[in-house]
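Lab notebook, bench 4. Still working through the backlog of constructs that have no structural model yet. Next entry is a single chain of 512 residues. Request: give me the structure tokens for it.
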Amino acid sequence: MASVQASAHGPTTGAPGGPEGQAAAGGPEEPAARPIAWAMLSRALAVPLILGLVCFLPAVIAAQPGSGAQDTAYWLQLVLTCYAGARLATMILSTRRRLLQGVFWMFVYIAMGVAPFAQVVIGRTPTPMVGPRSDLVTAIAMVLVGCAAFDLGALLASRRPLRRRAPAGRGAGGPAVAHPLRLRLLVLLAFAASGYYVLKLGGPAVFFSSRQEISATVAASGVASAESQVGSALLKGFGTVPALLALLFLTRRLVTSRRARRTPSTVLVWGALTVVNAVVNNPVSNARYWFLTVLVSLLFTAFPRSAAMYRSVLAAGVVGALVLFPYADRFRYDEEGYRPVRSASVFEPLATKDYDQTVMFANAVAWVDARGHTFGRQLTGSALFFVPRAVWSGKPEDTGVRVGQWMGMSMTNLSAPLWTELWVDLGPAGVIGGLALIGYAAARTDRRYALAVTRAGPGPGSVLAIAVPLIAGYTFILLRGPLLQAVGKLAIAALCLLLVATFREHRAARRR
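Model written out:
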């Protein structure tokens, strides 16, 4: 493990492909020379892509038979779908990789656009709507307004120059890089935590059974109780997140450093981490959204400069979400509990499974009308997720759970998209202000990431080059909600990144 280091400075060697563009810190990151082949290809793809996302797919859904009425909710949902489709097409065709913004618009187009539009047309929803139709109109309108606020925040971020930072190799103040010794500690933590997780659940075999079996085994292990799931969340979080992050750091090192690829110890550790992740982060024992996080973060880390991979992930994500995702819960239950999807149309599962984000927003509108806004209480509970209920007796439950209990639902594992969380706590002002801030932060982070992966600088040990792909993949979970369930693994990832990050030059980090 002596060779598991993060080279932090100097030009990288062995990186596949050249920079997509050169940009000075504080200036626009326009490519210096756009490849002629891609320019011709983008023009050829632009028209069919935009027509497909904005016109063809919504038109096909609108033509589906169903009992839905063409009222205000119908037309608002159609506008939202077309708007999100246009923005997603812009992300795919962009000359720059906007990871966070691209994933945001992919989620909105699928979960808040296409799927709810199919529900409106067919007249069926995965979860019943308890309030009047006007609540659905309010929910769709606020999603649309929130998306516009996100775009406004991103536009404001593009108008501000990036703050000039000290170049790497001049002491403190440079970009964050992985400290070589701390990275070794993260690798050891990953092996130890994942090993304990596997042993606590009785061995690797249970990780290839079903999520239902995993949950039952965790409950039998005694780390969780009926009153609090903090112990279970910490066990799963530390058993999966450090292993993924360690794999991402070593993957980036192997991709960007020729010397690392020629060092047997580094390759062997990477191989061992791959095996560990295949056990604890496989799609059988984990939620679909978490496996998407693992897959997306690995692809963006392994191909940091590949515009083709970026565009393929966004484009294939739409197809996969519409065709494969509703059927991808095969391993949620055991053989007795599994109920296969039977439908005559590819759009029927969108109306009956999984995509309950918009209708749950409408139910949250009705819940707020009956109970009032919580004025930050729900967001505070999410931020203090690690506090056990035995210590904080009045700790808020998941927003989806609270709304589901108010609805009288027996199954309360319901979504609470980010728009819902902001609405429940702070109303329309929270949705507009919150999404504008998120759009601003996403655009600024995307610009920083573009500089980190397209210019010589932080090199294989760049923390930003690892954090952004991870957050991009985790965006699915954050946007779907509830936040109280989502923030646990994100906080563990933040702790791991803080463990390895340093802003100072280290001679050992310069060795290839």
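Notes after review: Residues 386 and 409 are 26 Å apart (CA to CA). The chain has a mean pLDDT of 81. Flag for follow-up if needed.
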